[in-house]
């Protein structure tokens, strides 16, 4: 696809997650084992979705899998689920069928929860110049031994200078990966990762140095190590994020006037594509901004007839689902309504009740207040109502 200056090629991610992980000796597939508050596969998906260039993640699960749909991340609209196959390559191919017209595809292990944002950023940077793609990899530091065939005795020491541990994600142009993976499967090649399919077809993907703590959870002892690495990673991330929202609508028509989800008796309503609830619009924008999810106009555009006359409480609840899927909870929300008339004070308690219901929080976490501009400006002249909101989100 062609791209104008200043734009990036589109990227989708595929997670093959149909394996059972028998070496873990666990009661469930290893990707569903929990580290902290989230399963391993959720950690892996969150690490991808935090990057703004990852448009969506396609998760290929086993045909009998009923666990993924129970995870909160499954409700994220950017996550698509499909049925995988018996082998990793089959699951990746199933995911590629849903990749649409994306330019690049990034394949990541579902059991690799410790991906660092800076590693992902360096890998994605190759889309600006590479025609083949590349993988995250870690240089081999230990002395490597080759065993005698069929035995556990040393045959000889292997020169480690040019050896790398292959990691994931692995990133390739979508058409090229499809072509190479299908050819490798048709010709019976041993496809242990996506790069090996390209190697089979004569291509030489780039090696991008990644962190060695980007481990794959394979054995029981890996769980404690992954938990330690994730703790270190979480300590480096911002645990609190602040967002600001602002909205304004002018008066027009007969109403109804809806503010904070409450119908307020008044002889005029607010002009808007939806119900014109400035308080909930500002609050939604503040929450989305804190989570780096854009704004209400991006998620629910006024050019879409589906949102004509929409209930802003429904829009807020939908936005909140997306925020929760990114692993955030509400710290607090503070809303200031700016209006000369009508009086807001009698309705504020009910507004707080609705907000607490929609955000699944305590009423002490939401505050609503109202003020005038002392008859100055458009709100002071009674031409409309404005609202500001500030939200604090906390990473779980």
Shape: elongated
Q: On the 0-100 scale, what is the average pLDDT? A: 91
Uncertain parts: 1-6
Q: What spatial order of strands do you see in the largest sheet?
A: 5-4-1-6-10-7-11
Largest sheet: 7 strands, mixed
Structural class, from secondary structure content?
Answer: alpha/beta
Instruction: Count helical runs.
Output: 11
Gap between N and C termini: 38 Å
Radius of gyration: 26 Å
What string gives the helices and strands in order?
EEEHEEHEHEEEEHHEHEEEHHHEHEHE
User: What is the helix content?
Assistant: 25-40%
Q: How many beta-strand elements?
A: 17
Strand percentage? 25-35%
Please give a structural write-up:
The structure is a single chain. This protein has about 400 residues and is α/β, with parallel strands linked by helices. The protein is about 30% helix and about 25% strand. The chain is built from eleven helices and 17 strands. A seven-stranded mixed β-sheet has the order 5-4-1-6-10-7-11, sandwiched between helices. Strands 12-17-15-16 form a four-stranded mixed β-sheet. A two-stranded antiparallel sheet has the order 2-3. A hairpin with a 6-residue loop joins strand 8 and strand 9. Helix 4 crosses helix 5 and helix 7 runs parallel beside helix 9. The protein starts with 10 loop residues before the first strand and ends with a strand. The N terminus is likely disordered.
List strands and helices in order, with pairings:
Layout: E1 11-17, E2 34-35, E3 38-39, H1 40-49, E4 54-61, E5 79-83, H2 88-96, E6 104-107, H3 117-124, E7 134-139, E8 144-147, E9 154-158, E10 164-173, H4 174-186, H5 194-200, E11 206-209, H6 220-236, E12 240-250, E13 257-259, E14 262-264, H7 278-290, H8 296-299, H9 312-325, E15 328-338, H10 348-358, E16 366-371, H11 377-380, E17 384-395
Parallel strand pairs: 1-4, 1-6, 4-5, 7-11, 15-16
Antiparallel strand pairs: 2-3, 6-10, 7-10, 8-9, 12-17, 13-14, 15-17
